[in-house]
Amino acid sequence: MEQDLNPETKIYGFWEKENLFRADPASSKKSYSVLIPPPNLTGELHLGHAMQHSILDAVARFRRLSGFDVLLLPGVDHAGIQFEATFDKELKKDSLSKEKLGREEWLKSAWEFKEKIYKSVSASWRMMGLSADWSREVFTLDEGPRRAVFEQFKTYWEKGMIYKGPYIVQWCPKCKTAIEDVEVEYEEREEKLYYLKYGPLTLATVRPETKFGDTAMAVNPKDKRYREYVGKEFEIETLAGKRKMKVIADDVVDPKFGTGVIKVTPGHDFNDYEIGKRHNLPILQVINKSGRLTELAGKYAGMKLEEARQAMIPELRERGILVKEEDYVHNVAVCERCKSVVEPLISEEWFLKVSELADGAVKVIDDGKIKFLPKNYAKILKDWLLNIHDWCISRSLWWGHRIPVWYRVTEVQRANGTKSIEVKVSLDSPGAGWVQDEQVLDTWFSSGLWPLSTLGWPFDFAQGKPSSERASLDPELAKYFPWDFEISAPEIKYLWIARMIMIANYFTGEVPFKAMFFHGMLRDLQGRKFSKSLGNGIDPMYLIAKWGVDATRMALYTYSIPGRDGRVSREILDERGKNFRNFATKIRNIARFVLELKPDSAHLGGVHSHSAKATQGESATSEVLRSDSSEVADADNKWIKEELEKTIKKVTNHLEKVGLHLATEEIYEFIWHKFADVYIEKSKRRRENAQPVLEYVLKTCLILLHPFMPFLTEEIYQKFTKRKKSIMLEEWPSAED
Fold it and tell me: What is the pLDDT of residue 413?
């Protein structure tokens, strides 16, 4: 068989040229829609992406072969925080920064950078053979999503669900923006627990540097040790002078932590913030947005927190405030993107009231309108939704959907001398004198609309449909909604999946997808996530270069069990890649035997032999063929057909349930151990009689295997003379055939 230097590229180009990935909204076929989670714009193809794309593609190819009009829709997320961090590193190489460029110049350069990096990574997204309708690719900052984001914001605004104000948020000093609780990770760290004298009481803290922001001491009301102190005020010695501080009682205090007394810092701890609200405590900001101490820290002002802590300890000890230290292991909140320690602090942000959205999402989950794989994720998401808090939707960035709120200062002076400010919600500038809000919306605000914005919602926006009417999808694409299949890593179940359910149900009354597949996480042998800092990642391009795309895909399907994490190493994946490369070689050898070395007299829909050696081999077995028992041959033919029917049933059933690991096992077992080891060996004694069955079984095997090994199956399929333009146009076999 003719070998191409880069057969995958050639075959993929053939598929694209023939528009075999295109969905056809006008088709009379039943639709099946698959929504690709948009990879981050700056994200290179990693092992998780490779597995995810392989699963998506297997589902899409199976459904096409099963007679569906399939829409596998690709897209890219602008990834606000991650993109800015990446772009700012590039700017530093040229001694540039956001401050030097200004917003307009920075955005112009950012879009140029976007085009550059997109071209460099988009090819890798196709490398896995993803049969996506690239003509419908969406970017979350495209005009369509921009209109969708505005429609969403405006609707919430008009219903009084959006508000702005100074509240405590999770703040990343490195990314310089607020982030959501679910964007925070926790790392176990061994630090010191410091026991400090606060007047007549002693308390324990891991953060003495926040001492300058304390506004009370607190004990549990049931703690008999401290009842006499509750309500009393004491003079406290600090490194910035003496201060008076009251002792309050609150149920949230754990009597078993430290001495049972805690310091209350409402400006820099979520529990303390709530205590402060309940007891009307003042809020002091001692940490700024750069992660440094403010002027309230006196001579320690301007220091980074760790630096300040180390500088304070000797003085606290010398002045008798620090009475003892203990080793202490606890969880520290870090930014999920940059791994910097997150600081709770007060910031002026925009928030969305989500109770109504969450209630609707809980109802559709309870009604079983979404099939979760695995099933337990229904309860996991529901429990989170039942305890959800208002969503901080603003980010202090420039890359993203800018908050569509505009301000204008009027000339009219109020009685107290302050100027009156008009506010308007508008997609574009209302005119001269109007200034737009500086912040952008959280990336997940637009990603949460992904099931809708990718299908043209709000279709009526450009036609000027009254806002009192419900916005709709593009009528041409509405047949694909709700999406039939969605996939995700579990780590973004709250950030993305829960929000897509909330938002889609709120705006359409429908679930965003019918089936939600959570694939497991691929981890190293120690159970750790792959990361650049640990250097434990495995580049899928390494596997592809060594074993080929199809073998890499097959290796990854062995880890595609819903919800189950897999521990992998380069050695393990090499072993599996080698095994499936050998499997591909086995199939090529089978195809050579069936199609190229067939008897010249067999004109049964396959290709003619072009091998002199094949002719000699066939004549050598002619005597055996003539003496062969037709009864034995019929029994062998019947057996392989029955085994094939069993395989078809099992593989189809596994694919219907998205058990891809089980489907590939069945095909592997049948092709290698039943078709090759048994039937083909027996067929050599009666080749002419077996030829029609050999070709039928081979072609059927190729179709069954196509969702998993698309390149190999297309390559061999093209060797048949009786065939369609592509194996993608074949029909999925039924057991009755």
Answer: 55
Per the omega criterion (within 30 degrees of 0), is the bond before 475 cis?
Answer: no
Superfamily designation of domain 585-729: Isoleucyl-tRNA Synthetase; Domain 1 (1.10.730.10)
- Phi, psi angles (nearest 5°) of residue 282: -70, 155
Which residues, other chains included, contact 436 with Cβ-Cβ below 8 Å and sequence gap of 6+? 402, 403, 404, 405, 406, 407, 429
Q: Are 160 and 355 in contact (CB under 8 A)?
A: no
Task: Spell out the alpha helix ranges (H) of 621-705.
Answer: 622-627, 630-656, 660-669, 681-683, 687-705
**Cis status, amide bond into 374, omega within 30 of 0:** yes
The ranges assigned to domains in the chain are: 1-161+353-399+439-462+478-519, 177-344, 404-437, 585-729
- Assess whether pLDDT exceeds 60 at residue 620: no
- Taking only the tens place, the pLDDT of each residue in 106-139 is 999 999 999 988 877 777 778 899 999 999 999 9
Per-residue model confidence as pLDDT tens digits over 370-424: 999 999 999 999 999 999 999 999 999 999 999 999 999 876 655 556 678 899 9
Q: Look-up: residue for tokens 């200062």?
A: 409
DSSP state of 460: T
CB 111 within 8 A of CB 403: no
Q: What CATH class is the domain 177-344?
A: alpha beta
Q: Which CATH class is domain 1-161+353-399+439-462+478-519?
A: alpha beta
Average pLDDT value for residue range 511-526: 95
Q: Is the pLDDT of residue 349 over 50?
A: yes
Q: Which of residues 597 and 46 earns the better pLDDT score?
A: 597
Burial class of residue 361 (count of CB atoms within 10 Å of its CB; 0-12, 13-18, 19+): buried
What token pair was written down for 693? Answer: 């069955």
Mean predicted lDDT score pLDDT of the chain = 91
Please state, in angstroms and rounded to a whole number, the distance separating the CA atoms of residues 225 and 723: 87
Helix (H) or strand (E) run with residue 84 in it: helix 80-93
Q: How many CB atoms within 10 Å of residue 171? A: 24
Neighbouring CB atoms inside 10 A of 195's CB total 16
**Cα 192 from Cα 324, distance rounded (Å):** 10
CA distances 438 to 269, 377, 396, 403, Å, are 26, 37, 8, 7
Whose CA is closest to 155, among 427, 500, 468, 482?
Answer: 468
372: left (phi over 0), alpha (psi -120 to 50) or beta: beta
Q: Could you report the per-residue pLDDT of 73-113, keeping only the tens digit for each?
A: 999 999 999 999 999 999 999 999 999 999 999 999 999 99
DSSP assignments along 492-547, one per residue:
GIIIIIIHHHHHHHHHHSS-SEEEEEEBPPEE-TTSPBP-TTTT----HHHHHHHH
